[in-house]
Amino acid sequence: MNSGFRFFLSALLLTFAGLPVACTRNSGRPQEIAYVSAPQVFLRDRVAQVYNKTGTVKNGDRVQVLDRERRFVHVRTDSGAEGWLEQRYLVPEKVFTEFQQLQSQEKTAPVQATGVTRNDTNMHVDPGRETEHLYLLPQGTKISILKRATAEKGAAEPMVHPVPVNGKQPGKAAAPPMEDWWLIRDQQGHVGWVLSRMVDIDVPLDIAQYAEGQRIVAFFVLNEVNDDDKKVPQYLMVLTEPKDGMPFDFNQIRVFTWNVRRHRYETAYREHDLDGVLPVTVSQENFDKEGVLPVFIARVKDEQGNVIERKYKMNTPIVRRVLAPGEEPPNVAARKKKKRRYE
Question: What is the pLDDT of residues 178-237, one digit of tens each?
């Protein structure tokens, strides 16, 4: 065996000897997964101003992180395409997991209203502009509204009272402005929080015109009545003050029934000054001689801050409270409350 062949054989053995070590090192590296938070991003073959496109990823796509360089990340898609994209278009797997958990937690949450997005809107994992977001809803997306929350308006600075000129101590910082957020479910089943002002509640115009300047929070079809050859829905509407940051989800409820003689909606019931908490639920219940009637339950806070349920039934066009055992009629409870106020 000549010296040249021995040198070649030795080099070949060293090459194969090094392979298991390299494989072991790579296999021990934890796999990093991320998700695309932008509507659409092109993958590039290099980090440079001039590059070739190697693929495309869309909002919600799962990618494996292979490498990082400055603000760019080298990724591989589930279909096998590889390329570089900017870090700002990705969120970590932890964010995706939190959205999955939120979706599981709220899978049975009753829908309070339907709506449509005014503009392209981010879905956040928590209420607040600075919280993590993943899914982006295009303008005109139809959604279901589940709950409400408030969060500080992140872009604003706390307001401070001016210093009085009479030498008194300066006033304390005013409470920061608050914004309303909706917990929503999109048509793909994703659940997340969106800024409420980015959503138009899809209330039928026939009853929306009776809002009287108040903000509609939720609406429900209680039942339908026959008017000649058509069926007309009768509605429960839930309303609140026309501004963000209120300490209640709603403070008014109204029921609209259809007058078959005059062929128009009329207000059958209204109640104000409620410290209401979503969700409101609608069902049916058998009331013996009255038969099966529409029923709705409004959750409100009492004077001690405890959340209690108030049940109502509608025997068109009459709406009445259904009292729980031991519960006093509303007029008796109101008189007692008024008496305590002046004692």
Answer: 999 999 999 999 999 999 999 999 999 999 999 999 999 999 999 999 999 999 999 999
This prediction has a pTM of: 0.81
Question: What element of type H or E holds 147?
Answer: strand 142-152
Domain total for the chain? 3
Output the pLDDT for position 83: 96
| Helical segments of the chain, H only | 3-27, 93-105, 205-208, 330-342
- Residue 236 near residue 282, CB atoms below 8 Å: yes
Residues 195 and 217 in one domain: no
Asked if the structure places residue 98 within a domain, the reply is no
CATH number at residue 123: 2.30.30.170
> Which of helix, strand or coil describes residue 114?
strand
Q: What is the distance between the alpha carbons of residues 223 and 265, in angstroms, rounded to a whole number?
A: 14
Asked whether the CA dihedral 146, 258, 317, 289 is positive or negative, the reply is negative
The CATH number given to whatever domain includes residue 61 is 2.30.30.40
Largest pairwise CA distance in the chain: 116
Strands 264-271 and 252-259: antiparallel
**How big is the chain, counted in residues?**
343
Residue 114 lies in a domain: yes
Look at residue 62 and tell me if it is in a domain. Answer: yes
DSSP state of 272: -
Domain that holds residue 30: 23-92
Whether 231 and 306 map to the same domain: the answer is yes
Full strand arrangement of the beta sheet holding 199-201: 133-137, 121-124, 191-195, 178-185, 142-152, 113-117, 199-201
In a domain, 239, yes or no: yes
Alpha carbon distance 204, 235 (integer Å): 10
Going by C-beta distance under 8 Å and a sequence separation of 6 or more, which residues neighbour residue 286?
292, 293
Tokens at 302, concatenated: 């009492």
217 and 195 belong to one structural domain = no
| DSSP code, position 16 | H
